[in-house]
Amino acid sequence: MRVKELAIIYRTRLDLPAFDAYQSLATPRQAASFLIPILGQEATEVFGIVCLSTKHHFIAWHEVSRGSLDTTVVHPRDVFKAALLVNAACILGTHNHPSGDPIPSPDDLELTRRLAAAGELMGIPLIDHLIIGDGRYYSFKEGGRL
Q1: What would the pLDDT profile of 96-137 be if each residue is shown by its tens digit?
Q2: How far is residue 99's CA from residue 5's CA, in Å, rounded to a whole number?
Q3: Domains of the chain: residue spans and CATH
Q4: What is the pTM of this model?
């Protein structure tokens, strides 16, 4: 499958909220308004990435992993494989906390550190990591942890 075909498959998922494909997702608030409808009602923890262009416009949504009530396994290779396939300039990592509390755990902090380091090495920066919970969000960027 060619890269362009793959990007179209990701972009046309039926469960994505309606949005303007040229709308920027550069700020945590903009990204959260896009992600809360996707992850807000999940009963298990889901980690995904939003692949973005150089101007932080949406390219693709990719669900990387789906786990249990309070954990999911995320490997940097799976995250960046998807980003490479759609020619993303940068990515936004995100996951939900089914408990409703978006405060990051120590595992969340470590994952963010690993993804940021891998992104720097690969030239696809992790611009933020948002945790979604009960209609609220936590941004690592706003929290000064990224």
Answers
A1: 999 999 999 999 999 999 999 999 999 999 999 999 999 999
A2: 36
A3: 3-14+22-139 (3.40.140.10)
A4: 0.85
